[in-house]
Write a structure and sequence with these properties.
- The protein is an all-alpha fold.
- 79% of the residues lie in helices and 0% in strands.
- Helix 2 packs across helix 11, helix 3 packs antiparallel against helix 7 and helix 5 (113-133) runs antiparallel to helix 14.
């Protein structure tokens, strides 16, 4: 049972970009679907677990959830420009490197020389893996500096969201208690994005079909809480790295994103390095 719980986040997060890719629609449609679907899961989880949360922590969780949408919107826009198979590995690397540096600088992670050696060596492996996944044939259009910088800048939303559990007021709350306000924050961010960029999206069919992607994401996020409790934070994190494998190869198989034999070989090697490097950082 513990193994099943550990696999649910990887499957749910890996499947989300495939579901939204199949449904289609604009990034506005897709981020709304994530927010609405995740909020449904958050509400159901709240009704079942009946947790308590302070008003201040509730408000802060809503804010962090809204800021998370910046990162996810960046992913959805990048899916359109460079595909899922290029976006997911690169985004994973940006998240891992950024979160690690924030942890070191602000929260005192990797305090010993040994931890720093392991951690930074792992990050180098991850970066090399990302470079390999971006290798393209001479006749194919590769990633541009603009593509990379756009994804990097929007990843700041993920960094804020990931750092949020380390805030003192949040540490005092139960993880199930802050889950619903986080999901409502994602929905709030999605609604604001849609209101200011494309109000017509609210009457589009794809807007609501993308809720299936949100349900997948929300189930994965809620399952991760219990995976961390039953398997430990390190083991739970390790298993989630399979989402990179699922999303990347799912983009090739399910979404039919083209990779030449040479590009595929480099992608496979790059994904392997990203997974190995990600796992290694959890031991730093």
């Amino acid at each position: 049972m513990n193994m099943i719980i550990a696999l649910i986040p990887a499957i749910g997060w890996g499947a989300m970009p495939l579901i939204t890719g199949k449904v289609g629609g604009s990034p506005v449609n897709q981020i709304f679907g994530i927010g609405a679907g995740a909020s449904i899961i958050g509400l159901l989880a709240f009704l079942v677990t009946k947790p308590t949360v302070s008003p201040a922590a509730f408000a802060l969780a809503v804010l962090c959830g809204a800021l998370w949408t910046i990162g996810q919107i960046g992913q959805f826009i990048s899916f359109k420009h460079i595909g899922v198979t290029n976006t997911i590995p690169l985004s994973t690397v940006f998240q891992l490197v950024g979160n690690s540096l924030i942890g070191i600088i602000i929260f005192g992670d990797w305090p010993t020389p040994r931890a720093k050696v392991i951690g930074f060596s792992a990050l180098v492996i991850v970066i090399i893996g990302a470079l390999l996944t971006s290798v393209v044939d001479q006749n194919d259009k590769g990633l541009t500096v603009r593509d990379v910088l756009f994804l990097l800048c929007t990843t700041v939303g993920y960094w804020v969201y990931s750092s949020f559990p380390n805030i003192g007021i949040i540490k005092q709350q139960s993880t199930t208690g802050i889950f619903l306000p986080e999901m409502l924050g994602i929905l709030l961010g999605a609604l604001l994005y849609g209101f200011f960029t494309d109000r017509q999206s609210f009457i589009q069919r794809a807007q609501y079909l993308n809720i299936f992607g949100g349900l997948s994401w929300g189930i994965a996020a809620f399952a991760y809480i219990f995976s961390a409790q039953t398997n430990g934070n390190t083991a739970a994190f390790i298993w989630t790295q399979l989402n990179v494998v699922i999303a990347t190869f799912g983009g090739i198989i399910v979404l039919h994103e083209h990779k030449s034999p040479r590009e595929l070989r480099y992608t496979i090697l790059g994904i392997m390095l990203i997974v190995v490097g990600s796992i290694a950082t959890s031991f730093a």
